[in-house]
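Minutes, methods subgroup
Present: GH (chair), OT, SY

1. OT presented the first of two proteins processed in the latest run. Sequence and structure tokens recorded below as shown on screen.
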Amino acid sequence: MSWTEVGNRDLFRVASAPQAACSREDVMSDVVSSAGDKAGKEHWSQVWSKRSLPKPVDPRARGPRQYVLQAFHRQFVRAFEGRDTKGQRLLEIGCGRSAWLPYLAREFGFQISGLDYTEIGCEQEREILARAGISGEIVCADLFDPPERFVGAFDAVVSLGVVEHFQDTAGCLRACTRYLRPGGRIITEIPNMCGLVGWVAKVTNRPNYDVHVPLTREELVQAHREAGLDVLWSEYVLPMDVSLFGVGGIGPRWLRLPAVGAASAVAAAVWALDARGLVPAPNPATSPYIFCVAEKKT
């Protein structure tokens, strides 16, 4: 399972009728978006062009590869608990080839939209939605320069592996908040690059590590507060995920393939032990993901 296939946009890496790649009102602002974006549009365009389309997330599927997906599913259930989400509007920011938009429509009844600044990411997401038989509007635009009709239009905003690529985390979250209605909820997920995942990435895939801003849970919470949001809860997710260690990017092929196989075997073992409660609880040192759920002040 690649990282992006569970929501994040890198390390290992979810329709409506086709639209024009970028209409005039949706054209990205290079000046705004380039400030502090450590990854950039070209990076993601290259990543997406090399990958096949993921299947929409199905939380009822079984098997070791569902371990991470089901953990994310539990986070979403908690995030929307007590809210009548049927018919409400949800936007995924950084939606390129996201497996989660069809899931969010099916599981919670959201009317979905997606925004991404790469044309190929938008095209792939439209194809994913079309294959799933899910309607939704996918717009090619910069998150800092939204279409006017998107401002204050959504009951929920989701970003999975997005805000940690911007040097000004609070500024990025402040931009995401513009899409929410008062009282709307934002769900933010990032990789824990301050923990084991980041430590290993420095060795196995330094270029990939360098496009991230490492953040602790406390720093992510503080960034939400600086963006003017009321934080409901935030936590580390899962005790470990060896599949995120980036061994697929190391060394020659003769070394890389055994390393990937070994990492997959270790990941499966860790997942099996976790299912039996035989590994540490989620923690800052070894947990691979951080979630934060907050609301826009009324």
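2. SY then presented the second protein from the same run.
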Amino acid sequence: MPTPPRRLGARRRRPAVLAMAAALIAAGGLGGAALYNSSGQRIAVLALARDVPMGQVISADDLVVAHIAGDPVLHPLDAQDLQGTVGLRATTDLKRGALLVKSDLTSDPATQPGQQIVGISAKRSQLPATRLQPGLQILIVNTPDSGSGTTRTPETMTAVVAAVGKPDTDGSTVIDVAVGPASGPQLALWVASGKFQVILAPRTAGGS
């Protein structure tokens, strides 16, 4: 018995069905790509171009714009905040490559109203190996010659570094420190005698 011929309409529908399937697959791929792009959208934020010690004023050279995927857990400063960030002080030691967040910066001055600024010319042996930066709290210890041989607790004074000069050819460095209004004259006497030592004060829990 001869096989009946296929209808022409069935042959015409098959290419149409294939074309529709291809279109649906393409649409699905585009939809997936759009979803990926929206979930992985990259934003421009501020990051550290180099290490910045606590207390140092932020300059434009310290910053770089980084592009990262948006994440609601992260809250770095937007790249548009660049101009407002320059001139602020670091509240903690900032490391190269780290994203910059609001708590890393402060507009508070290194010194407070009413404090006296005293210049200290210190030899290399009178300073800690850690480079001093504005905003760092230090202790200045009076180290007079002991003539009696008795040991007593040395006099100390708390101060905040206000400015640091460049080292001289002999290795000495002039440092401006801020002390209370009643402590300036006493510190000036210690500095004039040359009998003092500068040490770093302990960091507080908040890193300031």
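Chair's summary of item 2: The chain has three helices and nine strands.
Next meeting: continue with the remaining queue.
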